[in-house]
Amino acid sequence: GENVEQHPSTLSVQEGDSAVIKCTYSDSASNYFPWYKQELGKRPQLIIDIRSNVGEKKDQRIAVTLNKTAKHFSLHITETQPEDSAVYFCAASYTGNQFYFGTGTSLTVIP
Amino acid sequence: GAVVSQHPSRVICKSGTSVKIECRSLDFQATTMFWYRQFPKKSLMLMATSNEGSKATYEQGVEKDKFLINHASLTLSTLTVTSAHPEDSSFYICSAPSGLRNEKLFFGSGTQLSVL
After folding, report:
1. In Å, how far is A54's CA from the nearest CA of chain B?
2. N or C: which end of chain A has fewer CB within 10 A?
């Protein structure tokens, strides 16, 4: 099956700085790459996603980039705020058939 | 977005007993549901894919007889942890895809299982 690796496992940034989380995947057939945010004790929530026919997607302070050739994609959060503190997971999927998650990144935004 | 309901949210049971966890899609039909296991501060480990009207597909290393999955309707999938042991204690969370291409994954609220 698919193997998704995620780095870093923990990340601390000062409020207002940017945060970048990177993921790689192994299966070239994967064509959908969502990012989830999970706050402590809560369910993961989809925050942004990208399909393989797009190189970049942005939604306000959050952006995702995809390099299909290199099989890696990244999450960029700009102007970080304390409420951005959470665990972030990347995932790879082939048309909704199974979703494989990265190992997660615990982001702490220091006020 | 779509709503996935999962019950119970927390269960404590004795070793050797069985525990059933329910996952319901409230406002959409889900022919497929996914069951994950999550350890503290760890990732979501895919256990199995539940298929409505057919057998579940289990990931390598997941015991089929230990984790029984039933997807009897388009809105309900159940996971039964049989003869639970302390090492089965974990956070179990279900999810179901929805949306135009069935790519948006929506999660239940999870079940914290503690086996004494």
Report:
1. 15
2. C
Closest CA to B95 of B6, B1, B29: B6
pLDDT value for A96: 66
Which residues have C-beta within 8 Å of that of residue A68, sequence separation ≥ 6?
A52
- For chain A, say whether B34 makes contact (Cβ under 8 Å): yes
Tokens representing residue A77 in the block = 């959060």
Q: Which chain A positions have a beta carbon within 8 Å of B3's beta carbon?
A: none
- The stretch A7-27 carries a mean pLDDT of 97
Three-class SS string for B31-54? Answer: CEEEEEEECCCCCEEEEEEEECCC
Please tell me the predicted confidence (pLDDT) of residue B42. Answer: 77
* Preferred mutation among B9, B43, B111, B112 to probe A, highest tally of A CBs within 10 A: B43
Taking contacts as CB-CB distances below 8 angstroms, the residues of chain A near B48 are none
**Beta carbons within 8 Å of B111's beta carbon, 6+ residues apart:** B6, B7, B8, B9, B10, B11, B21, B91, B92, B93
Cα Rg of chain B (Å, integer): 13
Quick: pLDDT tens for A90-109: 999 987 677 889 999 999 99
Q: B42 vs A96: CB contact, 8 Å cut-off? A: no
